[in-house]
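Q: What structure does this chain adopt?
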Amino acid sequence: MTLIKSISGIRGTIGGNTGDNLTPIDAVKFAASYGTWLRSYAGKDDLKVVIGRDARLSGEMIQNLVVSTLVGLGIDVVDLDLSTTPTVEIAVPLEQADGGIILTASHNPKQWNALKLLNEKGEFLDAAQGAIILELAEKEDFDFAEVDDLGNITKNDAYIDVHIDEVLNLSLVDADIIRAKKFKVVVDGVNSTGGIAIPKLLKELGVEVVELYCDPTGHFPHNPEPLKEHLGDICDLVVKEKADFGIVVDPDVDRLAFISNDGEMFGEEYTLVACADYVLSKTKGNTVSNLSSSRALRDITQKHGGTYEAAAVGEVNVVTKMKANNAVIGGEGNGGIIYPESHYGRDSLVGTALFLMLMAEKGGTVAELRASYPSYFMSKKKIQLTPELDVDGILSTMAKKYENEDLSTIDGVKVDFAENWVHLRKSNTEPIIRIYTEAKSQDDANALADKIIAEIKAVAGL
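A:
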C-alpha cells in the first residue's frame, strides 16, 4: 500500500495506516492544505472551488471528505459529482472559481485515488505552488471557519453537457461534416465517466455508438491504462461490429487511444500526431510534446511548416512551453491532447472531435491513415540500482559521454541521434533509471535500450 506526495498532488491506495496510504485523515489534511494555500494565493476570504470525480469505488467517500473540509474552511464548493478531468478544468473559469480539485487516480487501478489540484484558470499548479501545499500539510496549521462562516455547496451535474457544447463550438469542429459520414464507433469507457461523456459527444455528432464497459460503476473490467495488452475486448469488438474505429479512454478521460478498423492499435503516441495533423492543416503554427514522446510529431509539424519543441515530462511543463512557443496544439505521447482554443489541459473529448474531423476530410480507413504517418517504435525499460548509488552522478556521467550529440538535460538526459533517441529519467521514489528509446524498428529500439543499460551498469560498477 502506498501514499505518494508530490508537487502535482497526492495519490495513494485506499485503506491501511495514516501517512502510509490515502486514508480519510490524509484526504482531509491535504484538502485543508490546498484550501489554506488558496486563501493566501487568492488574497481573499470569499473563495469558490469546483470539485469533480471519476467513478472509482472510493470516489464518493473521498469527495465527501474533501468537500466537507473545504466547507469547514469557509470555502464555497461547486460539486460536479461524476465528471472528467477536462470537464472540471473547463468548469473552473466558467464558474469564476478560485480553483478546482479532481478526485481521480487517472490510469491507476481501482485501489488508488488522488487529489489533482487546479488554479483559477483550471490548470495544474506549478512546482513552487505544489511545494507550499506539501509544506502546509506537514505543519497541519489550519484555521477552520466558525459556524456562521462555513462554506456552501452547490450541486451542478450539467457540466459534461456544457463541455460537449464547448467542443461542438470549436472553430475547427463542424458537426454537419461529421454527421454526413455516418461513422460507427466502439467506445470502451472502462466503467468510469468516459462511459458517460464520450458516447454523449459521439451521439451529438451523429455517430453510431457501440458501448463497451460504459456503465460508470467503478468496477474496472481490465487494467485501466489504455495499453494494447489490456484492450483485447475492444479490438475484437471493432472487427466484429465492422466499426470505423474504436475509442478507449482512461478513468478520468484525459488519455485517448484509438483502435483501427482492423482491430489493431492506432498507437497512443499517434493520437497527438493525428490531431496535430488536422489542426496544422488548418492553422499554421508550432507544437509541443514532452521529451519521452514520439519524434513523429516533429515530422508532422515540420511537414506543415511549423516548429516542434520538447518539454520536460509532466503536463504543467508541456503547458508552460506551449504558452512560451505559441503552440497551436500539443500534449503528451500517452494520448493526451492539449488544444489551447479550448483550454490548457489534456482532453479526450476535444481529441475525439478533432480526429473525427480528420477522418471525415481525409476519407479512407483509420488503418490507412496510420500507415500514412512516419513509423517509429518505442522501447520502455528500467534499470534497478542500489540505494547507495548516486543516480544523479550516473546521469551526469552519461550526459558527459554524449555531450557532442544533440543533448537535453532539462529532465534527466535525452540524446537525439540522427535515426533514433534515448531518454533517461530517474524515479523520484526509488533507485531506478527509466530508459525510453525510439527507433525505426522495434529491434533497433530494443538494441539501443540494451546498449544504454550496459553503459549505465558500467558507470555504476554493476
